[in-house]
Fold each of these.
Amino acid sequence: MRVAVAGAGKVGRFLAEDLAASGHQVLLLEKNPDLVSSIEPSAGVNCICADACEVASLQDAHLDEVDVVVAVTGDDEDNLVISLLAKQEFAVPRVIARVNHPKNHWLFNESWGVDVAVSTPQLLAGLVEEAVSVGVLVRLLQFEGGNSRLVEMTLAEKSPARGQALGEIGLPRGATIVALVRDGHVVVPRADSILDTGDEVLLLVSASIDDSEIRDLLAQSQ
């Protein structure tokens, strides 16, 4: 896979090296020439001096040939501009953007070319809730400009889903269980998989589904 990473700060450099180590071809874009010159050559990573907010620079970088663009600069405005140019001018199939300030998260949607927005504070908050909450629906990640989301619930002892097979719990159309975590191990969900207390249920849910519909099926009975 060909990936362009915009922003060669600590996050961008780590991401580029990690992707390259996994066998991907990575193009690292950075407008600060001093920062570019300070980066040591790394196998699989081509670092160039380019302003990812400028169409001409992106054309020179052949952005139309990449599969994924990741905008991880420290400036939300830059990340939005990069995302919009990547999607509208170069038709990049997948655009991922870093949200530096959580209050700006609402801007990072398909209107700005963003397929997936990643806000570290919100992600950490979700993980904290996931770690300590039983019987509570926790939003972990938002996908596709808000059109779908990944949610998690750890089943309590009095959950109405306890003892039922996945195919019997009657999930609404647009909600799919993508994984179960049981005793620290990931279990591939099947229609005949029986749910039990303590199971962590991960679901991919479309925007048309209200959280209450999932809670009614999985949350602890009062």
Amino acid sequence: MNTITQPANYVTAARRSNMLYFLVCGLGIATWAPMVPYAKERLAFNDANLGLLLLLMGAGALIMMPVTGILIQKHGSRKVMLTASFLVALILPLLLIMDTPLTMGITLFLFGGAIGTIDVAMNAQAINIERHYTKHIMSSFHGLFSLGGIFGPLFMGGMIKFGLQPLIASCLISVLLLLISISQYKSLLSYNQELRNDEKVKFSWPGRAVVLIGLMCFIVFLAEGSILDWGAVFLKDIKNFDPAIAGAGYAAFSIAMTVMRLTGDKFVDKLSPQKIMLFGPVISAAGFSLTIFSPWSWLTLVGFILIGLGAANIVPVLFSAAGKLKDVPASVSLPAVTTMGYAGSLAGPAGIGVIAYYSSLPIAFGCIAVLLLFVSFSYRQK
């Protein structure tokens, strides 16, 4: 951190505005989730075809994340954020209209690209804002993202429940995203206000420190993605939960993660980033172990809560560390770390499926616990 004790008013305003952009990103991604069944029915897809189609969204994000670093260097993060948020809002309703595999695939690819772009840009803005503080503030940004992930399906599902057509409901959410983005744009740090440390360092390929941080992000995103994609299956098939409440594990995980992220900055400042990186993965690994070996349903859900509590602040700490590496511009380190992390959320669930096929789902979850312990003992302050 730098030595500025009291951030200027424009910095505190930028912090509030950027938190709302994190909310926009979370809402945008989460609103797509309730749309998936409609897309599957409209296209008459089976599970395999749908899975292949959904990969295009991830491909769009992975391609645009490295490109976003170049765009930020040229135009500043806030212009990139505004453009990407507009694209997210405009594309979102189209996901309920496209009725051929080709058009749907192109639309999902563009949607993923917009999500990947705003993800990198808003984290770059957050890193520049954090440099004006003498304390850790990254977790609060990610807390708003998680909050959007909870409210997105609730907003969409609630409006449909009350009789609105899905297309109209998605359009209303798009309008909300546009209103937030436009109203908060001017309060963000401008190109000239951002700390242009990147201009002092020539472009270089990600070095060992960036790759190590990226690998740790890959593992943590893998763990989070496994809960999203396999948590309900685990509870239903392994723990014999009723299918109607098999989603309780992911709900418990999400709520725990959101609460911890919204309050996480105080924990990071009090304990230090090093201790968060030491104990957070261990707590998550203990949560996975509890879900595997617990003989009681309620204790299994406690395991999901521990996974969320432990993992909540790891990624914010890693992103913050990536933005502060010596002799590495943030426009190089952050896209690289974000891309590797996002690759974990995409490839991880598939890898879990392979391990579960050749052994069992509990063993696959156990492998994640071991990887989280690797994160705990591999982190070094950069």
